[in-house]
Amino acid sequence: MNDKITNWTRKDDAIVEAAIRRGATRRELLQMLLAGGVAMSAGSLVLGRAGNAVAATPVAGGALKAAGWSSSTADTLDPAKASLSTDYVRCCSFYNRLTFLDKSGTPQMELAEAIESKDAKTWTIKLRKGVTFHDGKSLTAEDVIFSLKRHLDPSVGSKVAKIAAQMTGFKAVDKETVEITLANPNADLPTILSMHHFMIVADGTIDFSKGNGTGAFVREVFEPGVRSVGIKNKNYWKSGPNVDSFEYFAISDDSSRVNALLSGDIHLAATINPRSMRLVEAQGDGFVLSKSTSGSYTNLNIRMDQEPGSKRDFVEGMKYLVNREQIVKSALRGLGEVGNDQPVSPANFYHNADLKPRAFDPDKAKFHFEKAGVLGQSIQVIASEAATASIDMAMIIQASAAEIGLGLDVQRVPSDGYWDNYWLKAPVHFGNINPRPTPDILFSLLYTSEAPWNESQYKSEKFDKMLIEARGSLDQEKRRAIYNDMQAMVANEAGTIIPAYISNVDATTAKLKGLEPNPLGGQMGYAFAEYVWLEA
């Protein structure tokens, strides 16, 4: 008998795969192969191939449980108000978008069947037929118009109001066709519509706690700051989801979150600390680490409209004081790339690679601190577990400051309430920004004069005008040149210090299958619940 597989067909592969699913042992499988005339060494190849096929085939059933790292009593199922990863995960499970980004960052159609434009200013959206909300209502053009227009209502408090403001005209051509007119051309609209905030809700929705969407799960429980439970949508217009139910909650303490995974209480522990990776790896084949570097970052924010950030030399001194290489090596345990103080990461087509990071230079830092008159003072810096690795980063910066006579009083505050009470408010504090697919979105949310999340209160009329110019250009190289200049402006003029782009690591049980990287962030761009499955 030789090592070749003779007279072996796809049907034979299917028989082996079926035996694996029934729980046949490797010995039983090899005996079956030998009886079919397959040599031992070739049989191993067959089993490997069959095992991979079984692993890649979704299995129906099971109760999926997962834990994120942040939540608060302000948790919401209103997509327009979503601001935490916890909100994004829940919105992805209960609602759908018009488009979504695949793992390559390319917009794909979801509730939209097609999105077309001849001039990047007037867009026609054709909706899918046969889509219904959880309450049985059919999806129509009016639902889409309501969902998009509500971002323009100041009373809604949409997190993407500034981005949505470019949508100035809405028309229902018929029940399944929407026409959107923009104030100015923007070729990024299909990508923009893939953002979590632009989930589609039913026309006239007031009570968002019901989570009445078109998504893969129907809301059963929603307790803000505690947990949510979704049940498989049996009338879902797609083929999924694979699991019968999905429970999501937050465990803010990293060690507790990982221990919950190792003890079998949850199937996924989101965004684990690098220190916890070794513990997971030591468990052997029963657990898996899923790594993705998609542009998330933790940044040090200095408000330039308050003391001490109102002194330009203090901001300059802090930029020279931050040892970016040490932060990647120590605070992030190597899971990151050195940042250059602007939000467009190396994973993005428009990243300015020629913009070099500010060199760590304590002498220059001291020079600027002396000019600002802050040496010998104690300056409060707010950090929290809520902002990934911010406490470790703060300790590194504090140690460097002490060596040149600057006192940084690092205040470690609880995760609960951090985003409401400290982020955007404290004079010097840390933030944590999830990936966004385009420079336009990042700059609109974080750096224009009227940006809703303007963390350092950066104001530049020139910057605002450049963003509009880049947005309307269909010339890709022209857009790149403008975005390069804008990245340099942020790095040199704003009060945000972005030392690194963080590699996100989600830890899962080996029984959880189907998890893939996504440019919108960890947990498969926060949409994992719809696509993963639990191995029987």
From TrEMBL:
Keyword ATP-binding: no
Subcellular location, record wording: Periplasm
A biological process from GO: peptide transport
InterPro entries hit by this protein: Peptide/Ni-bd (IPR030678), SBP_5 (IPR039424), SBP_5_dom (IPR000914), TAT_signal (IPR006311)
Pfam families recorded: SBP_bac_5
Keyword annotations of the record: Membrane, Signal, Transmembrane, Transmembrane helix, Transport
Domain Solute-binding protein family: 107-450
Transmembrane regions listed in the UniProt entry: 29-48
Molecular function (Gene Ontology), one example: peptide transmembrane transporter activity
GO cellular component: ATP-binding cassette (ABC) transporter complex; outer membrane-bounded periplasmic space
Family to which this protein belongs: Belongs to the bacterial solute-binding protein 5 family.
The name this protein goes by in its record: ABC transporter substrate-binding protein
